Amino acid sequence: MKKRLGLSFHILIVLLLMVQASCVKKTIVVPQEQRLLPAKNATRSELLQGLQIKGKQIETLKGTVSLDLSRGGAKSGVLDQYRQTRGYVIVERPSEIRIQVQLPIVLTTVAIMVSDGQQYRLSIPIKNQFAVQDVNAPVNPKNSLSNLRPQIFLDGLFVDITPHLNKPTVKSLFEETIVGIRSYYVFSFFETAGPEPELLEKIWIDRTDLQVSRKQVYGKEGRLETDVDYENYHNQDGIPFPQVVLIHRPLEDFTVKMTFQQTTMNEKLDAKVFDLPRPEGSELVQLTQQ
Q1: pLDDT tens-digit readout, 78-120
Q2: Contact 233/209 with Cβ under 8 angstroms?
Q3: Which position has the higher pLDDT, 162 or 25?
Q4: Pick from 179, 237, 180, 233: which is nearest to 210 by CA?
Q5: Chain centroid to CA 102: how far?
Q6: Span 44-289 CATH architecture
Q7: How far is residue 27's CA from residue 200's CA, in Å, rounded to a whole number?
Q8: How confident is the model at residue 4 (pLDDT cuts 50, 70, 90)?
Q9: DSSP character at residue 269
Q10: Is the dihedral of CA 226, 89, 213, 46 positive or negative?
């Protein structure tokens, strides 16, 4: 009897150990699409040097783009979309830009915008309207595409940290983070001259290719003013440039997607391309009152 009880006790102990072991460890194969993508490594100094080079590579840009515009959404509860509008972009950095927007198929010019960094001029031929405005003028509080100023395109197209590096009171924070299946290096730039540090800008570098994938620009009190995504980089003459630039403006509640179909870089431009005289007989309008 004692032998039987002893044997039963040992069997019970073995079974309990097996059950406990099965509860502690369970192997599950993670699907390939959910696995973290391979990440490249770089030092802080290497990345900063790369960003400085990137900021100086393009002096002029000419491009044919497809424009997708939308306004509203979660903030307003209404989403208006304007898809597949054709456009032409001409830039001479640091401050000059010309944008021409056309209707698809018929290619009628909807608007022409130019800016020299001080003021912008807007011509709307289909309405026979014309406007001149300071680039820093207050935006329209209404949810209007009149807030779609050329300076927004200019600021969104390029990443340039030189102004931060040239200012002694601007400091940077460097970190690694993971979002979904992608790993990122993130630089955050702060203005430290005031009583409290003020966040100016965040630059996200995708570790799959070490290219800038996102730029966030902040205003007063940490308010996000511009959020830009960069996708589908192509090399042209040794210069990597995103073929898709997605510019989101949370304050005005609109988004512009620029898909480049053709680009020319660092070609000498005629200064006249940035001229936009008022068409004879056109109505002079105030954008901030529309």
Answers
A1: 445 556 788 999 999 999 999 998 877 667 888 899 999 889 9
A2: yes
A3: 162
A4: 233
A5: 23
A6: Clam (2.50)
A7: 45
A8: low
A9: -
A10: negative
Vertex 59, ends 58 and 62: CA angle to 5°?
85
Strand, helix or coil at 267? coil
Peptide bond into 94 cis (omega under 30): yes
Cα–Cα distance between 168 and 161 in angstroms, integer? 13
Q: What is the pLDDT of residues 210-253, one digit of tens each?
A: 999 999 999 988 999 999 999 999 998 899 999 999 999 998 88
Site of tokens 């931060």: 164
Q: How many CA atoms lie within 13 A of 73 on its CB side?
A: 12
d(CA 215, CA 242): 13
Judge residue 74's burial from the number of C-beta atoms within 10 Å of its C-beta, 0-12 exposed, 13-18 middle, 19 or more buried.
exposed
Task: Name residue, tokens 């390939």.
Answer: 32
Structure tokens that stand for 55 in this block: 């900021």
Where are the chain's structural domains?
44-289
Separation between Cα atoms, residue 40 and residue 34, nearest integer Å: 18
| Distance between CA atoms of residues 6 and 8, nearest Å | 5
End-to-end CA distance of the chain: 99
Structural tokens at position 84: 């597949």
